[in-house]
Specification:
Blueprint (H helix, E strand, L loop, with lengths): L14 E2 L1 E7 L2 E7 L2 E5 L4 E7 L3 H9 L1 E6 L5 H9 L13 E3 L6 E3 L4 E12 L3 E13 L4 E2 L2 E2 L1 H4 L3 E3 L2 E3 L1
Antiparallel strand pairs: 1-13, 2-3, 2-6, 4-5, 5-10, 6-9, 7-8, 9-10, 11-12, 13-14
Bound molecules: flavin mononucleotide.
Flavin mononucleotide binds next to strand 3, strand 5, helix 1 and helix 2.
Amino acid sequence: MEKVTVGPMPYMSVMPTVLVGANVKGKANYMTAAWATVACMSPPMICVAINKVRYTAKGIEENKTFSLNIPSARQVVETDHCGLVSGSQADKSGVFQSFYGRLRTAPLAEECPVNIECRLFKSMECGSHILYVGEIEEIHADPSCLTDKKPDIAKINPLIYAQATYFG
Ligand SMILES: Cc1cc2nc3c(=O)[nH]c(=O)nc-3n(C[C@H](O)[C@H](O)[C@H](O)COP(=O)(O)O)c2cc1C
């Protein structure tokens, strides 16, 4: 079958929905991101592409730490809110209850079943977006979401993002 070209665009078939946590001027801020994935196995790293204009980018640059929080489908309203409203316009520190792990400056959202705290390893300016690569310092998980001490996708019930829509 002959293929049809659809033009270059930032495309992936399926993406996760995560909340990037960063302290900005000492206050927790959470931003929804779908452009996030694993970057390295050893040492364990993840990466996320964040538009330069985001308030979150200021916090990552300020502290050199950030978190990725995995919301469950139960948190879809709060997650969508963090993707529509900027911390530069409204205080999002109360959307989730924050706690801090080893890094002390990467806010972790209590309500999300899995929280990944990262130390900034490298950032790469690609154009509109900066690719932030974070070395994972620790992962915090609700015991109810684990099977054999590992995060269990069936118990987490994460939000998948594809074609500008959330899938539970
Ligand atoms: C489902 C969803 C996914 C998003 N993914 C990204 C992303 O990967 N990178 C990005 O820069 N913005 C992304 N956004 C947009 C930001 O979340 C949005 O602009 C947010 O208000 C930024 O918050 P901040 O200014 O407090 O950092 C996404 C929004 C939604 C709703």
